[in-house]
Specification:
Blueprint: H1 4-7, E1 14-16, E2 41-51, E3 58-61, E4 68-70, E5 79-80, H2 82-96, E6 110-111, H3 121-124, E7 130-136, E8 146-153, E9 160-162, E10 167-170, E11 173-176, E12 204-207, E13 211-212, E14 227-230, E15 244-249, E16 257-260, H4 262-271, H5 282-292, E17 298-305, E18 311-315, E19 322-323, H6 328-335, H7 346-351, E20 352-354, E21 359-361, E22 364-366, E23 369-371, E24 381-383, H8 393-396, E25 432-434, E26 459-461, E27 469-479, H9 481-492, E28 501-502, E29 513-518, H10 523-540, H11 548-557, H12 572-580, E30 600-608, E31 613-618, E32 624-628, E33 641-649, E34 652-660
Parallel strand pairs: 13-14, 32-34
Antiparallel strand pairs: 1-25, 2-27, 2-29, 3-4, 5-23, 6-19, 7-8, 7-17, 8-16, 9-15, 10-11, 10-12, 14-15, 17-18, 20-21, 22-27, 23-27, 24-26, 28-29, 30-31, 30-33, 31-32, 33-34
Helix pairs in contact: 2-9, 9-10
Length: 664
Amino acid sequence: MCNYNHNKIKAPYNFVPVNKEVFFPYWAEAISHDIPFTEGLSGCIELEITAKTPLFIGKNKENGSNKVLPVTDANGKYFIPGTSVKGMLRSVMEVLSFAKFGPVDNQKYGIRDFQNEDIYTLKGDSENICAGWLFRNPETNSKSPYFIKDTGKINEKKLKVEHKEITFTYNQKKNEFASFFSDKNKKVFSFNNRNKKVLKKEYKIAEQKYKLYYGEKPFTKKYNDEHYLVFTGQPAFNNKGKHHEFKFPVPAETQSKLEVSKEQWNDFKFLYFDHDPDSISKDWKFWKDLLKNGKTDKIPVFFRKDTNGNLIDFGLSMLYKMPYKHTVYELINEMQPVFNSPKPDLPQCIFGYTSKEHKLKGRVHISPAYATKELTPLSEVTKILASPKASYYPSYIKQPVNGNGNLITNDDDKSYVSYKTMNDSDAELSGRKRYPVRGKKMFDVNAGDPSPNQERVSTKFSALPSGSVFKTVLHYHNLLPKELGAIISSITFQGHSECFHSLGMAKPLGYGIVDIKINNLDENIIKNYIEFFQILMLNFEENWLNSPQLIELFSMANPKGQTNRNLEYMQLNEHAEIKKRTKENIPQALPLNSLFKNTQHGTVKFFNETNGFGFIIQNNTQKEYFVHVSGLLEKINEGDHVEFYITKNNKGFRAIYVKKVKNQ
């Protein structure tokens, strides 16, 4: 049994809960670049960006390597692209302004989870997995771009071939395929090289029971006319792994055809990363290239069908990645019913957007932020920057938890946790993904170092040192005061000076924590514009300042909120342990509201409305906490019983999100 700490779901990221209601600016249709608002403002904000931890803004990879080059201009001077700064501010504004979630692709993620047969149903349904041939549909106007010829159920037709039945010539001697699966012979075959998954191309088949249909090219020399030999996956070098391949009957006109819908075809391509040249499945790329070059007209596939004989799903191996029932798009549509509305939200009104129906040019432009002095990069490091895919349901799907943060066990069977996944119609996304910022003391130079077998997925880069300073100018045109207030609130985290932004690559490892100052606006002017925006949002949502969205945003932006968090990625074995979810190994979910997790109670000592400040006496400690009018959710008077949160800025501790409660 794993120890308790090992069971906690840990990650360098967390989620801001999704807002159900969306604020749509009522002035959106009046926005124009040519006709100014009566209150329209145009001007600029001078920003100074200081790196609190090493910072790396990357561009393209160096040819033929995993090294990412830093962003520099033609003269070799370091700068932060204006688009990077704009994206950073926009992501904050999306939370502050209760914006639409997205954009998201309407694609189905997949699962291949041997830990949980109740979720990965394909494993328990292996008796019904069939073998077949995928053909392109010659009818160009058909709704089905491809079809599958059904050659029968694998187990029923006895289509598995043991490795000992396959022989090869090596050093002019006949050898059983299985004889090479020992530690001393690992180098004979390139099973660990995914580009040459079956054999090194110099080896020939000497004697075979079936035709080979995998490798550098399909093997065409016939032994008989009944079957093709199909290789999938990596053969095992131990007694527990895979020790068989498959014999696929030759396609025949008498075999039934199953139509592959456009949706199923798109799901298949998405699951094999057809959309990403850097991540595309080697198996799919192999077959895709053969199809494209006319070297084959068919692909061996594995599939399931329903009781009516219609296709359910398919893949390139017997236990293929199974698509979920629901897409992220569908889940969001349930959580935020107006997320697909053509009406623009506040960030879209300010920064611009393009959709099929409409487009609006942004009214904000940010210049490149150049370093204020010549910088010397730190020594090159090699790090693992990849994170789990959005299909990792223990994190990305909101899980039912109890008061201790432990996942709740299944109602019918208390022996294991009932995980929610994208197979569940009532599943909810955890929220908007963000990386909690870390202070200097939490920054670990050794975090993310790859193990010897992770070099292929590692990234090399040279970061700029902490303390590096950059300056830029944010230009704005024809903004309403409340819109300018939204921008300033996004820069300052609604005036929380203890909060920081994160920028650039390697944010999961604590790189890129930056402080942003406004150099050309007076502090009182900044407060006034923040108040314009605050009034706007409080009129939309009276609990806005105390909403879970803002509390979690400010919590993750404050280094003090991460003191008790483990911000490391889990190792592969830890991912598997979390998924086992037995009652002896019940995982803890990612914690929320780490900074403001304890609601405080107290009594108002006094509050001066004219000056806009006062003090609150905390009940259990009798300590006095300063409170400013900006930290109030409603009007308070001397003697009122209140609840509040405690935060700290450069002037000390203070009470925020103060609201009245009944007598305690």
